[in-house]
Amino acid sequence: MRYFYHVSSGEKTGPFSASEIKKLAKDGVIQPLTTIENEIDGQKFQARKIAGIVFGELSFVVEEEKKPEININHLVIVAGILLLCPY
């Protein structure tokens, strides 16, 4: 039996054998929530439902957190509450 997997854009890639799907999971290409589609009947399911599948580490880039800049001229006190005015 052969399967496709769906990428985040919705396109499907494949077909792959069950052992190839498991290797892609182990390599981190396929994640637990990746949609898998049976080539024959079109049935779709999450990769985590495949018996014996092992997932590799997900690699991603974390961007440095940007702190908002506050201009002191945009601060306003209303009824004793300090507010940030957007203009």
Structure description:
The structure is a single chain. By secondary structure, this protein is mostly beta strands. The chain has a domain at 2-49: GYF domain (Dna Ligase, domain 1, 2-Layer Sandwich). It is 10% helix and 30% strand. It is built from one helix and six strands, in the order ββαββββ. The strands form two sheets. It has a four-stranded antiparallel beta sheet with strand order 2-1-3-4. The chain has a two-stranded antiparallel sheet with strand order 5-6.
In summary, what is this structure?
This protein is mainly beta and 87 residues long.
How far apart are the first and last residues' alpha carbons, in Å? 61 Å
Task: Let me know the largest β-sheet.
Answer: 4 strands, antiparallel
- For the residues shown, what is the average pLDDT? 79
Contiguous uncertain segments of 5+ residues: none
State the CATH class of the domain at 2-49.
Answer: Alpha Beta
Write the layout of secondary structure elements.
Blueprint: E1 2-6, E2 12-17, H1 18-26, E3 35-38, E4 44-46, E5 75-78, E6 81-84
Antiparallel strand pairs: 1-2, 1-3, 3-4, 5-6
What are the main properties of this structure?
two-stranded antiparallel sheet, mainly beta, 87 residues, 30% strand, Dna Ligase, domain 1, elongated, four-stranded antiparallel β-sheet
